[in-house]
Amino acid sequence: MTNKKIAQQFSLLSKLMDIHGENSFSAKNYSIAAYRIEKLPMDLNNLDTKEIFSLPSIGESTGKKILEIIAGGELPALRKIIDNTPEGILEMMKIKGIGPKKIHLIWKKMGIENIGELLYACNENRLSNFKGFGKKTQDNVIESIGFYLSQQGNYLFAQVEQLSIDLLKQFQQLFGKNNIQLTGEIRRHSETINILEYLIPVDLTEISKTLQSHSEFEYIEQSTDFIVYQYNNGIKLKLYACPDNKLIELLFITTGSDQFIDAFKQSFPAINYWSLKDEQDIFKEANIQYIPPFLREDAAIISITKNNKIPQLIQPIDIKAIIHCHSNWSDGTNTLEQLAEACIKSGKEYLVISDHSKAADYAQGLSEERITAQHKLVDELNEKLKPFKIFKSIESDILNDGNLDYSNSILSTFDLVIASVHSNLKMNEEKAMMRVLKAIENPYTTILGHMTGRLLLSRPGYPLDHKKIIDACASNNVVIEINANPHRLDMRWQWIEYAKSKNILFSIDPDSHSIPEFENTRYGVLIAQKGMVTAKENLSSFSLAEFENFLKSRNKAI
């Protein structure tokens, strides 16, 4: 029972109390408790009762409830209110743009208890008679519901990667076969995963018989060569019955996208798959360069490989620095020194600390005075830790008018600036383009952070003309971030090829708020590989000397 899970229960109770219209003072106290618990530097689960009650940010009432959660796994008050809340209302909490107080109004005043009813009411403009539900709000709710429904059943790659490996090992044990293969979207490193697919070299009857006694596998449907299950009421599994002599062909066919496979078969119709020993032989027979699974998305890759033009692509080991990292000066959990020591331990050459800027007051963004204090600390740590180096950076908010939220005199004190949009994300294309383009043209903008602001499976991101944004970055010598947070993976890999044609430099950054989130960088590398990025094209792969030369050269132009 981690602090985060404990805090989530307090937070959910606070929201549900608001939805039910219960005491607002108590609801707020639960929300405050959730915030304080999540920020605690120690693990509550490892403390005894006396230690918990001695914490300065934890009162007696909160302490008792923490003990209830640790002992029973759940806050009794939370279970009680969940049991008295319709399932449709709980699902409604997942819709962007309608908070607890609006849901209270929707439920208690309008009599709407599920998303379907809410969508119908919005389409009928029935909410307009209630305060806070004008046409714009209704349109936003319709859009959010549509996006939510379209994403149901999908998972982030990072959410199911380990599960896919664990299931592979389980199937190997259950069927006594070592040549079971993982295929489909997960093998292509797709950003989101709808279904996990496996090739199992036994017949369908044996698959069905073996899994019948395992309740975690719920039967969904069956075809002539595969069975679909739902695993633990979560992600779906597609299990192909595959004879050994068909394994290579089916692995190839089920790995690539339909577009890729159709184009490949049209280009190379005479390949005898049954005679081949492995996938490498397929490409040898076609007399083209081997195409790794993660590049089998687009048919265009086939013409590229005919001329052996796939370069040596970036690998996780090529990352030499952590760029875009938040410390406890803003909303991160670790000190600057802890972050630097973690970098040193993992073999990194430097750290670019990029805390939130002053407009992000919700994240304790840095005022001008705190910037001066942080820079003084960076200087002290650099003296202590050399040759390792911490660079002074900031994730500066792009304001509504496209300006950054510090004056040029302040921006000039940083080694580099990451410019990002964090607020007022509901923009039409004209507004979004004006805002982002102006920020790109600011001479102090070094990196454009998470280009579209999207959150996978949650928020589609603001509309942009990608070509114009990329062209502007090229003209202004601005690096484009590949934000490696698995919820973002922004910019999209589909636009990397165009950016490469404009000689854009990328920066694969973890956007980390804690030391474990340094590992986010790997997800960014996997996405960069899909766009055929090389180490030379990625800023966080630069050595310390190369990075310093980059900054020196760029800052001369300001």
Assign an overall shape.
globular
Helical residues, percent: 40-55%
From the N-terminal CA to the C-terminal CA, the straight-line distance is 51 Å
The number of distinct β-strands equals 14
Structural class by helix and strand composition: alpha/beta
Chain-averaged pLDDT: 92
Name the poorly predicted regions. Answer: none
Strand order of the largest sheet: 8-9-10-11-12-13-14
Q: Report strand %.
A: 5-15%
Radius of gyration, in Å, reads 26 Å
Biggest sheet features: 7 strands, parallel
Number of helices: 23
Describe the structure.
This protein has helices at 3-20, 24-39, 49-53, 60-72, 76-83, 87-92, 100-109, 115-123, 135-150, 157-175, 204-211, 247-255, 258-267, 279-286, 300-305, 336-345, 368-385, 408-411, 429-441, 466-475, 496-501, 520-530, 544-556, and strands at residues 155-156, 181-183, 192-193, 195-200, 217-222, 226-231, 236-241, 321-325, 350-356, 389-397, 416-420, 447-448, 479-483, 506-509. 44% of the residues lie in helices and 12% in strands. It is α/β, with parallel strands linked by helices and 558 residues long.
Please describe the structure with a list of short key phrases separated by commas or semicolons.
558 residues; alpha/beta; five-stranded mixed beta sheet; 23 helices
